[in-house]
Design a protein that fits this description.
The structure holds two protein chains of two kinds. Chain A is an all-alpha fold. Chain A has 19 helices and two strands. Chain A has two domains: 173 residues, no CATH class; 253 residues, MetI-like (MetI-like fold, Orthogonal Bundle), CATH 1.10.3720.10. In chain A, 67% of the residues lie in helices and 2% in strands. The N terminus and C terminus of chain A are likely disordered. Chain B is mainly α. Helix content of chain B is 77%, strand content 0%. In chain B, helix 1 crosses helix 13 and helix 12 runs antiparallel to helix 13. The mean pLDDT of chain B is 86. Classes of the chains: A mainly alpha, B mainly alpha. At the A-B interface, helix 1, helix 8, helix 10, helix 11 and helix 12 of A face helix 1, helix 3, helix 4, helix 5 and helix 6 of B.
Chain lengths: 470, 287
């Protein structure tokens, strides 16, 4: 309760009047701030604040005149003059001249748009702050000096200090790249059109999406490959998530069973797969199942098989293997998680059910599982979507093999164990670097994952209120 | 009489059950340990550097380990170690400030911010890499100079992984903050003097995971090191030894390299296991 009122008070302090109200009720200085930013603050003694606003405005205008307008004007075309070659008779070679740079135009164009939005928001804030100071002065209240603002950064406004660096990083290194790549889906950016050295790239509208969803080309069409990979991706996510989940719980129950000794030893052995960097264990196990690997050697020595089995060359074997090896990797995590949760199940539940004549299987079915499912539902969801994008396990184990002969070889040889995410990677690194296709796929993956998340999350929300506890 | 019989029967049943569990656990342990035992054994094999169909070396020796130190492996190892140490320092700072803020402060943008990051997190991370690679390349931070580039990328967005730490902060009672505030401490002092000491388990957890992650990153590291051996981390480097044209002469060296990489990381993990388990279970339950 105490927190609620504090929150309201806080809101009142800082967000008293909206922009429209501030501007309408503002005095001359506040209204003039719309043209000269920071003026309203400055006249009321907040010189530093006014100065910062003004500086920002001046810098913004200078930037827009100098380069912002150029980037904006080029944004619709993504560059007009591509690289040209001129024959140099002396060296008997063609000397290239590079001109417009589509990549930079798109990047700085987006940045400029962001900057304009930021400017408009700051401009509105400038008027709101000016009005705030105006009202405070009229009422004879204390107006924050600059030093108060700075002090607030370690106190009430400490969150701004704490958030600034992480948010800057996320904006620059996650948000901006993702926005950029979404735009790439609507261009023809690839190895042959890298925007500068090879060729300019340009807007192509929805064409890439049409390519992905078109059946033209029969078996080799993008859509056909997409469907088969999507089907395997979903199947894989189901198998990987639930096999780990149930087996992990089972193992946890075995280790924690009354009367079982050396609990710590069993746990430590399993946890090795978490401790040892995954790429080592995955790569090694993948080679164990090579045609000339240890497994075949062992089976042949034992006389069980005569010719080596090509595990990674057969779609069915390869698919079964990645699921099984993923169990080997995944059970320990689930074992750790389930151990913690199993301890929390009230013992008297089991006691009571035992008196009522329930056998262990019934206990598992009616007490353990419902409790586990209830508590770990959100975890199951994230691990499902995580498995859909489980790049490492697939790429390091099978590298997507065996290769699907129908798929385009220019996209790096797509195989039967490829997930959408490894397909995307292969397309981007493939011989033609079809970044636009990678980007279209990325958007499609996002739509699939977020749809699943939303659907399940809403279901969960109805029986489990996860609101903020703190 | 009858009840005694039944009791005895139950006991016997329980014993059989336990024996069954022991058998299962022993089989599992064997399955879990086999690959690790094999990789260690093969790292000592001298007679052939190829992949062979048997496990026990016919001739034992340290040749593979010696060969490692004459190869690029030392560079990869140093690259990865530098990245891991820097990440272990910077990432926790990012994660903890993010999670503490979202757990303790109530400000207007809090909910939108959390939704924003949830949505961002649903995009496949690879997507961002294509442009990050090109940007790093323009800045000259790829190939030989991949290390600072990778550090930048790993650290910059680490704040996104705030969920587990936030769940931890949520469990620390706010009355602690409030009483400290009444005593005149400002928010920053509360954070550093009251909360941080209490948050030791989660600090260790974040440091540990931040340190371990770079050892396993493959996807982006491969992208950035493209074409040069100098800029690779251990994962990409050792992977390259298993490609078709190298595996025949490098297979046992891969095993030796794997052992060298795994030992310190594994020991560290085992040593701090308690904190890891706390973090993981807390995170799973909280969701």
């Amino acid at each position: 309760m105490g927190k609620k009122t504090k929150e309201n008070k806080y809101d009142e302090l800082f967000h008293k009047a909206g922009f429209a109200e501030s501007f309408a009720k503002g005095d001359a200085a506040t209204k003039l701030s719309a043209i000269i930013m920071g003026l309203g603050c400055a006249v009321r003694g907040q010189l530093a604040r006014g100065f910062i606003f003004l500086t920002f405005q001046v810098l913004f205008i200078l930037y827009m005149i100098n380069s912002g307008s150029y980037w904006l004007s080029m944004l619709p075309s993504l560059g007009k003059v591509g690289p040209t070659k001129e024959y140099d008779a002396f060296f008997d070679t063609y000397v290239p001249t590079y001109n417009d740079n589509s990549f930079e135009i798109l990047l700085y164009g987006i940045l400029t748009v962001f900057l304009i939005v930021a400017f408009i928001l700051t401009w509105a804030l400038n008027i709101k702050m000016s009005y705030d100071a105006q009202v405070k002065k009229e009422q004879g209240k204390k107006i924050n000096r600059f030093i108060d603002d700075v002090h607030s950064l370690v106190d009430e406004g400490f969150y701004k200090t704490l958030l600034s660096l992480p948010m800057l990083g996320i904006t620059l290194f996650t948000f901006l790249p993702i926005v950029f790549m979404i735009f790439i889906a609507f261009t023809n950016y690839d190895g042959k059109h890298d925007g500068y050295i090879t060729n300019l790239f340009t807007w192509v509208g929805l064409e890439n999406f049409r390519t992905l969803f078109s059946m033209a080309g029969g078996k080799g069409s993008y859509f056909n490959v997409f469907l088969s990979i999507l089907g395997w991706t979903v199947a894989w996510a189901f198998l990987a998530t639930f096999s780990n989940y149930f087996l992990g719980i089972l193992v946890a129950m075995m280790i924690n069973k009354k009367g079982i000794r050396f609990k710590k030893l069993w746990r430590t052995i399993l946890v090795l797969t978490i401790a040892i960097p995954q790429f080592i264990s995955l790569l090694y196990v993948s080679k164990m199942f090579d045609k000339g690997g240890i497994v075949n050697g062992f089976l042949m020595n034992m006389g069980w098989i005569n010719t080596p089995i090509d595990y990674w060359g057969n779609a069915t074997y390869a698919r079964i293997l990645v699921v099984v090896i993923n169990i080997w990797i995944g059970i320990p995590y689930l074992m750790l998680i389930a151990t913690g949760i199993l301890m929390n199940i009230p013992a008297d539940l089991y006691e009571a059910s035992r008196i009522d004549g329930a056998n262990p299987i019934q206990q598992f079915r009616y007490i353990t599982m419902p409790y586990m499912l209830f508590v770990t539902a959100p975890y199951l969801l994230t691990s499902f979507t995580g498995n859909m994008n489980n790049f490492n396990v697939i790429y390091l184990l099978s590298a997507g093999n065996p290769v699907n002969p129908n798929a385009s070889a220019a996209d790096g040889g797509v195989g039967y164990t490829d997930l959408l995410i490894t397909w995307l990677y292969k397309i981007a690194l493939g011989s033609e670097s079809r970044y636009y296709m990678a980007s279209v796929l990325g958007i499609v993956i996002f739509i699939i994952v977020s749809t699943i998340t939303l659907l399940v999350y809403n279901r969960l929300g109805s029986n489990k209120n996860e609101g903020d506890m703190a | 009489m009858m009840s005694k019989d039944r009791k005895l029967g139950m006991k016997a049943k329980e014993r059989i059950g336990n024996i069954f569990v022991y058998i299962m656990l022993i089989i599992m342990s064997i399955i879990w340990l086999t690959p690790f035992v094999c990789i260690v054994l093969q790292s000592f094999r001298v007679e052939s550097t190829w992949q062979v169909g048997y496990v026990m070396p016919k001739e034992w020796g340290l040749d593979n380990y010696r060969a490692l130190f004459d190869s690029d492996f030392t560079t990869w190892y140093m690259n990865t170690l530098i990245i891991a140490v820097v990440c272990a320092i910077v990432n926790p700072l990012m994660v903890l400030s993010m999670s503490y803020t979202l757990s303790r402060f109530r400000f207007k943008m809090r909910k939108p911010l959390m939704k924003f990051m949830l949505i961002l997190g649903l995009f496949p991370g690879i997507l961002a890499m294509i442009i990050l690679y090109r940007l790093l390349k323009d800045m000259g931070l790829t190939q030989e100079n991949a290390v600072p580039g990778l550090i930048l990328v790993y650290c910059a967005s680490s704040g996104m992984g705030y969920y587990i730490a936030k769940g931890f902060f949520d469990t620390i009672s706010t009355s602690l903050d409030e009483s400290a505030r009444i005593d005149g401490a400002n928010r920053m002092q509360v954070f550093f003097k009251i909360i941080m000491p209490l948050a030791k388990p989660i600090v260790i957890y974040t440091v540990l995971t931040a340190f371990m992650a770079p050892w396993g990153d493959f996807m982006f590291a491969k992208f950035v090191a493209f074409g040069t051996s100098k800029g690779m981390n251990v994962a990409v480097g050792l992977w390259s030894w298993l490609t078709k044209d190298q595996i025949n002469s490098r297979y046992t060296m891969f095993c030796a390299g794997g052992v060298i990489v795994a030992i310190p990381v594994t020991l560290l993990f085992m040593f701090l296991q308690k904190y890891y388990v706390e973090g993981v279970t807390g995170g799973a339950v909280k969701g």
